[in-house]
Structure formats: C-alpha cells, structure tokens
Amino acid sequence: LALAAFGFISQTSKEPLIREIVRMIMLDEARHVAFGVLSLKGVYDDMSASELRDREDFLIEASRLMHDRFMMQEVWEHMGMPVKECVEISKTSESMRLFRSLLFSKIVPNTKRLGLLTPRVRQGFEELGVLQYESWDASA
Q: Using one digit for the tens of pLDDT, what is the confidence trace for 67-91?
C-alpha cells in the first residue's frame, strides 16, 4: 500500500524535490517488502490445509477491502452524494485506476512469488480484475 501511494505521488508530482524524497522513501519501503517476502518464502509450503486456507481467506479479504476502499463509498454516503454515480467515477478516474494498478502490481506478483497464488486466491484476484499483474516483476 505504501509503495502504491508513494509511486502515485512520484508519477504525478511535478516538483523535483518531492519526487526525489518519494524515490528515497520507496527504496526503503521496497526493502521492507523484500524482507517480508524473503522471511515468508517457503513458509506456506509446510502449512496444513486449514492454515493455508486461513492465509488465503485473509489475503482475498484484505485485497478486496483495499480495492473497495478506494471507491470511497463511505465518503460519498457521509457527504450525501449520489453513491452509485460517485463510485462509478472512482472506478473510471484515471488517477484512481493508476493507484489501483500500482497497488496490485506489487501485491499479485509477490503473492505468486510466495507460493500463495493458489486457485482460490487466483479466483479472488480475478474477481477484483487484478490478475493481469501476475507476470509482472515482483520487485519495487
């Protein structure tokens, strides 16, 4: 999520100083992601079916919540705006599409790299429309 947020700032900011600061932050965040991936690599191979199912459920639900959160439905409701119309604008907004792309272009390949892109997770990612990132580079 942090990589996506900073990636979005990096790609949309016109200010060179902000872009450089964000670049350095992204390098640090990438190290955090890499550490997590290295630490978890192989862990899922030895899990029982029920433990693996718990991890799959968590990954699918967390991904769905992140995906849906950026449609800002609760914000539109709270502001008294026409929710369906505003959600549709969020779905088609170029900046929000870029952000969702940046977000899942890291989650999906790292999930695959960890061996967690199981048929259940694959189906969940397919439902979110993010499976196209499966073959992308998992690095930051």
A: 888 888 889 999 999 999 999 998 8
Residues 6+ apart with CB under 8 A from 103: 1, 4, 66, 67, 70
All residues at 6 or more sequence positions from 19 whose CB lies less than 8 Å from its CB, including other chains? 9, 10, 13
Helical H segments across the chain, by residue range: 2-12, 16-40, 49-69, 73-79, 83-92, 94-113, 119-128
Tokens of 13: 């900011």
> Torsions phi, psi of 3, nearest 5?
-60, -40
The pTM of this model reads 0.77
Mean pLDDT, the chain, integer: 89
Cβ contacts of residue 83 below 8 Å, gap of 6+? 73, 76, 77
| Distance separating alpha carbons of residues 98 and 54, to the nearest angstrom | 30
